[in-house]
Amino acid sequence: MIVLIGVITVTDFFIWRPLITWAEKFKYETVESENVPTSAVLDFLRRSPTVRVMTERVWKPVTKTLSPKPRNRPHTTVTPTSNSSVGQWINWLFVSGLGFIVLWGTWEAVMMLRLLSFSDWLSVITGAIWTSFRVFTALVLSLLWTIPVGVIIGRNPKLAQLLQPIVQIAASVPATALFPVLLLFLIRIGGGLKIGSVALMMLGTMWYILFNVIAGAQSIPSELFEAATVYKLKTFQRWRTVILPGIFPYLITGIITAVGGAWNASIVSEYVQFQGQTITTPGLGSIISQASANAQYPLLLAATAVMSILVVLTNRLVWRPLYRLAQEKYQLLV
């Protein structure tokens, strides 16, 4: 863990912080923002005469040489040849082979699903309900703290300089590395995997929302906050008219990513081998893990198919309309 955190810290200091600071030059604002990140590495490179000489005498000539030059090509008329017919035959064979594989796989899947009993399907449906509830709970609990904290970090320059690197390092640590300690604590105080599965989902997904909220808060033009100050908007009015509409597209992107991560985390959070014993809780993740361990391939196929259907339906019926709304109504255009 110490080595892992050390590598993450060094990478953040030498790569990500300079890139984040350098990216500020592409931000369009007519009012200078106070929330400007800094990087000691980038400042050193900008002041370095060696880097300046290398850029002027090596990098620019190389890029100029490698850049393609526009050429005036004469207009030519393409005449059909025998190669086009050969290409059509190859495409037809490829599509036919792909269609055969799909049909054959579908038939094999149907034959496997016929082996399941009513109780198997009932356990899959029940597991889908439990996992959906845990995903929704993890999402709501993550939103309750990531939105205010993300906005505070994104709009407070001093706090962003202090907390953003810490948050980036914490987010880079795999959730599964911390899960044994968390599970041991939950087992001792009570709750076990029923609460632990939700906690693991949050550990693996809340960072997606937090980073997107921070980026959304930082992308809101300073002119809007200047106008809110001029019109003397109260805190609730600022959140309703400036902050929430400004971060909404970023928030939807973070939620979509976080929910996908929560579904993935369900497989390792609902079926755990810990201290020589196997701990489970009802859900699709535990069904998939147990079916894989016991070579119950029909049950594995059914649980995976149901999870895939739930994810696709959620994307189609919930996230896609919200994403379209964010693009059409809440996107800031300059």
Keywords:
single chain, 334 residues, mainly alpha, MetI-like fold, two-stranded antiparallel ribbon, globular
What does this structure look like?
- The protein has two domains: 6-23 and 31-66, no CATH class; 117-334, MetI-like (MetI-like fold).
- The model has no long low-confidence stretch (mean pLDDT 82).
- Helix 7 packs across helix 8 (192-219), helix 10 runs antiparallel to helix 12 and helix 11 (284-293) runs antiparallel to helix 12 (297-329).
- A hairpin with a 2-residue loop joins strand 1 (271-274) and strand 2.
- It is mostly helical.
- The radius of gyration is 27 Å and the shape is globular.
- The longest helix is centred in the middle third of the chain and has 38 residues, at 118-155.
- The protein starts with a helix and ends in a 5-residue tail after the last helix.
- It has a two-stranded antiparallel sheet.
- It has helices at 2-23, 40-47, 49-66, 82-113, 118-155, 157-172, 175-189, 192-219, 222-230, 235-269, 284-293, 297-329; strands spanning 271-274, 277-280.
- It has twelve helices and two strands, in the order ααααααααααββαα.
- Helix content is 79%, strand content 2%.
- This is ABC transmembrane type-1 domain-containing protein.
- One of its GO terms (cellular component) is plasma membrane.
